[in-house]
Amino acid sequence: MVVIVLTACPTGLRGDVSRWLLEIAPGVFVGHVSARVRDRLWERIVDTLKDGRAIMVFSARNEQHLDFRVFRSDWQPVDCDGLQLIRHPSEEDAAFESFAGAPRHGWSNAAKYRRARRYGGKSRG
């Protein structure tokens, strides 16, 4: 089973996707296709979609029996101990990620060894 949700979809792309899947609402396509067709459809969507967003949910052989693909969306697929989840990052997360990407002083291996020598050399007895 495959479910694709498209926003701001060009008519040519809508026609290509509707050849394989049934459009049950504007921009929502549902159907059952092989993995090869599903992957080719996703490639076509990614290549053709200019301003819109795309989300695809499909059957997979994992614990949840489904998997996600996201294109140009705020949502991010996240693997959490073998479970696929969709995460919607907030502005706080973006600020944290920009801070986390900055180099931190004192976390190199040399700094760890220096601290270990400084604090580990004293024995209490």
Summed up:
This protein has 125 residues and is α+β, with helices and mostly antiparallel strands. It has four helices and seven strands. This is Type I-E CRISPR-associated endoribonuclease Cas2.
Overview of the structural elements:
This protein is of the alpha+beta class and 125 residues long. The protein has one domain: Alpha-Beta Plaits (2-Layer Sandwich). The chain has helices at 11-20, 35-48, 91-100, 109-120, and strands at 2-6, 22-25, 28-31, 54-58, 67-71, 76-80, 83-87. The chain is elongated, with a radius of gyration of 23 Å. It starts with a strand and ends in a 5-residue tail after the last helix. Pfam families: Cas_Cas2CT1978. InterPro entries: CRISPR-assoc_prot_Cas2_sub. This is Type I-E CRISPR-associated endoribonuclease Cas2.
Low-confidence segments, given as residue ranges, are: none
User: How many individual helices?
Assistant: 4
- Percent of sequence in beta strands: 25-35%
CATH class categorisation: Alpha Beta
The first-to-last residue Cα distance is 68 Å
Average pLDDT rating: 81
- Main β-sheet: number of strands, strand sense, barrel status? 5 strands, antiparallel
| Structural class label | alpha+beta
Number of strands: 7
**CATH architect. name:** 2-Layer Sandwich
Oligomeric category: single chain
CATH fold group = Alpha-Beta Plaits
> How much helical structure, as a percent, in the residues?
25-40%
Succession of helices and strands: EHEEHEEEEHH
Morphology: elongated
**What's the Cα radius of gyration?**
23 Å
The number of domains is 1
Strand order of the largest sheet: 2-3-1-4-5
InterPro entries: CRISPR-assoc_prot_Cas2_sub
Pfam family, one: Cas_Cas2CT1978
Protein name: Type I-E CRISPR-associated endoribonuclease Cas2
